[in-house]
Amino acid sequence: MSTRWERIARETVGADYARVYDQRFRAMAARGADIHGEATFVARLLAPPARVLDAGCGTGRVAVRLAELGYDVVGVDVDASMLDVARAGAPELDWRLADLSAFDLGERFDVVLVAGNTIPLLEPGTLLDACERLGRHLAPGGVVVCGFGLDAAHLPAGCPPTALSDLDAAFGALGLDATARYSSWDGAAFDATDGYAITLYAEPAASGLRGSDLP
After folding, report:
1. Range list of H helices, 71-162
2. Suppose 188 and one of 74, 77, 131, 184 were both cysteines; which one would form an S-S bond, judging by CB atoms 3.0 to 4.6 Å apart?
3. Is residue 215 in some structural domain?
């Protein structure tokens, strides 16, 4: 059975969506665009060689950059075709096929990164399960970083928005507080009208990873 992401990707991009998605970012980089905002954000939070889980890694753009910066990275995604592209581009990295609402890698990470509209593209009714699984992969003192669009202008066509209050409640049930929130990966102050949010979730005692030093 196809996932919400697969259905939307096939309808909006076509059957070869994984390759198209990968080539889109490669073309942006060739034009001189900075496509590494997520990795730079992580680097401001915690220095390598920290362990990072790229949850919803897609074709591996972020995980590859984090590995280049010296992080110990594992990429996990529910879409086999996206992971095929990731493995072809970086066969030396650790790529796992799994559903975020049910996965258990048996490992803990200093940073659990959930970018690329992964949260709103979860299957209906699985937000609580996914957040529980993401939180269970967090090492003591670590941080979950979630970035995604809040409105139609920042989401794929046909993807319903996820309310920040619902995400806060889901992680709050695990004892993880929203410790900082931004509107862009360069650390701009959060403004709901910008249509995008990056939120850090951590245990209240994890004061060293609250993003207070971000611009």
Report:
1. 80-89, 127-136
2. 184
3. no
